[in-house]
């Protein structure tokens, strides 16, 4: 029996030491807010997936955090106007980010011992700090809606380490069992932001600066998310992208699975330093499998393959798969 099946079968690893968050590989769902994937975001949470993705636009005109794939001024998503467990699975949808967070909080009351869920937030056009939609306001919104249900950068530091890089290299990540009931937010630059010739200060750098400054001010506990280095690279991509002052604040990395694997990149760098590596479009790794409806065996094989290539999370559009498949967790090499 494979490791993925073993970890999925033994609730909470009851008879074995729970592996650390950095020592496992799990499955996530791309654009989990899409109504074509799940009628309600609560169903995405029910799916068993270990990562769910939200696309967020800052709407500077109405001062709102919009959740949509392509409409920066409106909401188009499966998040509903539900703040309590009894309101889930039936309220009006197409709500803003605050409602998505409310749904998560309500669902968390129903499932207080759920495995950790990474919430990958793509900031489509980046932050707009001048309009009051910057990192501080993002932190405040998440903290107000989810409170102690968030595993934060300060939790990794634990009052012991000076930077996230120091903590990760010491493998200060908690055991998966210790993260029951927790959400872990990561932030990536958005596609619109990256193509904007007038914007060179992207989400990753802006939030990295934010973490550095919060730590210097003695207020790192306010931060609710981890910034992500986006794009598959061979070696440490932080060196060429960021000022030395913020490089140590990046311990999450995100890139195309096929680029890493099919090009033979040395991904051992990530597991050796206990960094979290998210590999996207997992279906495209050679030999390619379906992006929507692979067999259970194909998903298990792809999970095992990418675990051997040091991924922490693999993502695709496999929302139609059962919870027993999407909740699979295996040992990371």
SS-derived structural category: alpha/beta
Q: Give the distance, in angstroms, between the N- and C-terminal Cα atoms.
A: 17 Å
Low-confidence stretches: 1-6, 8-15
CATH fold annotation: TIM Barrel
What Rg is obtained from the alpha carbons, in whole angstroms?
18 Å
Number of strands: 10
- Mean pLDDT over the full residue set: 95
Beta percentage is: 15-25%
If classified by CATH, what would the architecture be? Alpha-Beta Barrel
> How many structural domains does the protein architecture include?
1
Give the helix level as a range of percent.
Answer: 25-40%
In CATH's first tier, which class applies? Answer: Alpha Beta
User: What is the ordering of alpha helices and beta strands?
Assistant: HEHEEHEHHHEHHEHEHHEHEHE
Shape: globular
CATH superfamily: Phosphatidylinositol (PI) phosphodiesterase
Largest sheet: 8 strands, parallel, barrel
Tally of alpha and pi helices: 13
User: Going across the major beta sheet, what is the strand order?
Assistant: 1-2-4-5-6-7-8-9
Keywords: Signal
Protein name: Lipoprotein
GO biological process, one term: lipid metabolic process
Organism: Streptomyces argyrophylli
